[in-house]
Amino acid sequence: MATAGAQIKTAEAAVETAKINLDFTRLIAPIDGIAGQAQLQVGALVNLGSGPVTSVSTVDPIKVYFTVGEPQYLAWRKRFPTETTRLEADKNLRLELILADGSTYPYQGTFYFADRQVNESTGAIRIAGLFPNPGSVLRPGGYGKVRAAIRVQRDALLVPQRAVSELQGGYQVAAVDDKNKVSIRTVKVGDRVGSQWIIADGVKPGERVIAEGVQKVRAGMQVNPKHFAVEATGK
Questions:
Q1: The domain spanning residue 204 has which CATH number?
Q2: Which of 9, 40, 76, 152 has its CA 20 to 30 A from that of 210?
């Protein structure tokens, strides 16, 4: 009887081991997402040295990584000096994604996190945003551009970027007065908006600046100006 009982327990243990091994033949990902190409096929023996069977990526929402310069990052943080205002600003920030084909992604993203350090080689900090991804249109490894409205400047004075010349760390424009004479102005520039530049000082609203042929003019020169068509800047 004792021998038979021991044999029964051994058989039960073998059955339990077989059940455990059978469970290992079915792989269940711990996360929802999209699986990549299988590295092993049905029937292959899997062990600790087999390597990954496949990779699974969570894509809804999907993380989009981009970088901003350290000065821009610091300027944003200085506008919200307390943790409460900073968290509220981060929460309300809305991101737009320009896809590789130039189209605008139909869903807005939100700020997720900023990396712990500034890249010493580029002077930029890595930011992550979260975008809804119904239908899994966006895939890991894709390319796009991220933009966001971080502040509103009313009555800003804009001139085409091509009208602004950089000289020894400063900026100049060639202005034309009401007698069509050229004067060279030193200007203080602000942010870039598409193909235009915000001029903070040096030019007044209504004054004319030269956008084509800036290299050919000199102070005091008489010119025959023609209207310049400003390119659309979008948002």
A1: 2.40.420.20
A2: 152
d(CA 144, CA 104) in angstroms, rounded, equals 10
Q: What is the predicted pLDDT for the residue at 1? A: 65
**51 belongs to a structural domain:** no
Distance CA 96, CA 147 (A): 5
**Residue in this structure with the two tokens 């490894």, named with its chain if needed:** 141
Q: Which of 41, 90, 36 is nearest to 58 (CA)?
A: 36
Ordered DSSP codes for 96-114: EEEETTSPBPSS-EEEEEE
- CB-based burial label for 42 (10 Å; 0-12, 13-18, 19+): exposed
pTM: 0.59
CB distance 211 to 228 below 8 Å: yes
